[in-house]
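Hi R.,

As promised, here are both runs. First protein below:
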Amino acid sequence: MEIKTELFLGDCQSELKKLADNSVDLIITSPPYADQRKATYGGIHPNEYVDWFSPISEQLLRVLKPNGTFILNIKEKVLDGERSTYVMELILAMKKQGWFWTEEFIWHKKNSYPGKWPNRFRDSWERLLQFNKSKKFNMYQEEVMVPMGDWAKSRLKNLSETDKKRDNSKVGSGFGKNISNWLERDMAYPSNVLHLATECNNKNHSAAFPEELPEWFIKLFTKKNDIVLDPFMGSGTTLFVSKRLMRNSIGIEILPEYFEMVKKQIIPLELHLFEPEIKYEKTGS
């Protein structure tokens, strides 16, 4: 089956209206954070962020398949020495729209450089919020399993009697575990913390994903020939990874320079462009 990449130039709030209902398997994106990327995207004040993003998330809810997933990479803003609550307010607003806030992943930036302020240290992590349209969605957990590694050599070496049976949780959650089940296994399921280095200088973009980030979620929530959408495409990392993993992809970008950059890099691939009419007139396309 032919793998397609579609690019849209324009504001995603309007460009998303061109996509069909229930047509996308995975949305993974990193919109401009509050008061960030002012030089490229103008910046949105924390107090205005929910009002700005809500019409976009409403369109994303419409285009996502009932069994699809939305991964939102976002980060709090510190104002006057205090953490802003705009991310929490956005989560609550999206729940009112009909989203299920299913999970929260943490991206640990393992190469974050040192730094401090008078009342805090430098952040070396960001949120990756998982939203779904229903509580039942496609998830392929075996695709992201990791080697057991040294943890198995130490933790499973001398098991207690408690470890050898399904023990009730000590905190009353009712969840039991049998650690001995992992004896002789080569692979284990990962946690919800991703330890990945940042990557931006070689992508000509102020906040580029490392390729491993969208790759992990694409493997976890989609299969070959599914459709992946990034409504804030930027340098196009999600699209390139999707193509490599044999997924169809859709990218939307408001800045012509990034749109053109991705278009040139993806030209050898199957490409479908959706540019404003004025652009066709200028280029003669």
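And here is the second one, sequence first, then its structure tokens:
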Amino acid sequence: MSTRYKATIMYDGYDYYGFEKQGDLKTIELSLNKAFILWLKEDVKIVGSGRTDKKVSAKGQVIHFDLPSYIKPSGVKMALNSFLPLDIRVVKVEVKDINFHARFSAVKKEYRYTINVGKEDAFSYRYAPVFHNLDLAVLEEALKLFIGKHNFRGFASAQVDQRKDFNKTIYEAYLKRKGKFITIHFVGNGFLKYQVRRMVGILIDIAYHKVTKEKIIEIFNSGDPKISHRVAPGEGLVLYKVYYEE
């Protein structure tokens, strides 16, 4: 009887074309597939909690997979890390009930977007795009408008399947500053493709006084992604944590 495993992984996504496998392109899922083949000499189906885009990183991405026989979680972790590139690390492995699903069992996710508002340097560009002279007080006020249940069609990629449920709930949306970096935190029950990056994009426009915070309400009401045209760079975004019922 097969054994289901839940693995929490972290990765630096800057050099990758996202999480999901896309042919021979360098992706996180392809790297995981290759690690399993090198280890077990067979392909193992991997299911992620969700996709991350090109250049987007993760500190708490979750995957599940089934192995034909039981192997200690510590052994699974050690084996995978020995075959994975150093910018992808398995943090934790757990045995779960066969009904556990990395995506459908998740109850909420936390994303964080970091911006460098100070001097540029060679050690942060991969993780924090530079935006100078932002009005952070205005940005924080606008950020509050995302909290609650809304139709996020206007903040999603135009390529998202129109049959999807665009109604998502944001439980928390707040900003923290540390030195020259600001980090915008979003906790919600689910996120659409490009949603967080478009939300940050409109916040940047608001902080530059290009539009007012009422533009967010306009996008909610219209559902038109052309209005939220600025998509913030992928390298500032991190999937920080995926939450499950205990």
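A quick note on the second one: Residues 28-40 form the longest helix (13 residues). Let me know what you think.

Best,
J.
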